[in-house]
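Hi Y.,

Following your request, here is the sequence exactly as I used it, all 165 residues.
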Amino acid sequence: MFLDEPTTGIDPLLRARIWDELQRLRDEGRTLLVTTQYLSEAELCDHVALIANGRLVAHDEPEGLRRSAMGGDMIDIETVRPFEGSALSGVPDVLSSQQLGPRHFRVVVEDAGSATPVVVEAIGEQGGEVDSAREYRPSFDEIFAELVRRDRETRGEASDAEAAA
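Below is the corresponding structure, written out as tokens. Let me know if you'd prefer a different format.
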């Protein structure tokens, strides 16, 4: 079954009911091809093809796209006192870090479930104290933006912001 933007202009409650029905049809063994302008709906699909400027940017399961865009799982960490997230660069399982504020940073790890206790312990060993640590799941808007940015960079194209400047 082919559906071209079946939820455009529909209120959120009816949109949810439509997706419940689409998932029921899928569970009965039907194949559905759905186009949507609502990126949050893409997470409800088994496979997603991201298209920008008429080109296929990426194709995978939603979780595969998330990991591809972000480089792994992400953990948001807030500390009691200022802490420099880059100090975790040598910690096993930490692939990268991004400082978001003096007490707030995000680390990319292979697996958030197993890496969170390792990261929290490493912060403690370096004199920091964790106030909160939780897995961060970027929205599909963020995933789409990152994959499109990367695709444009690979092709040597300017971003929309650069082109407007």
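The chain has two domains: 2-66, 71-136.

Thanks again,
Q.
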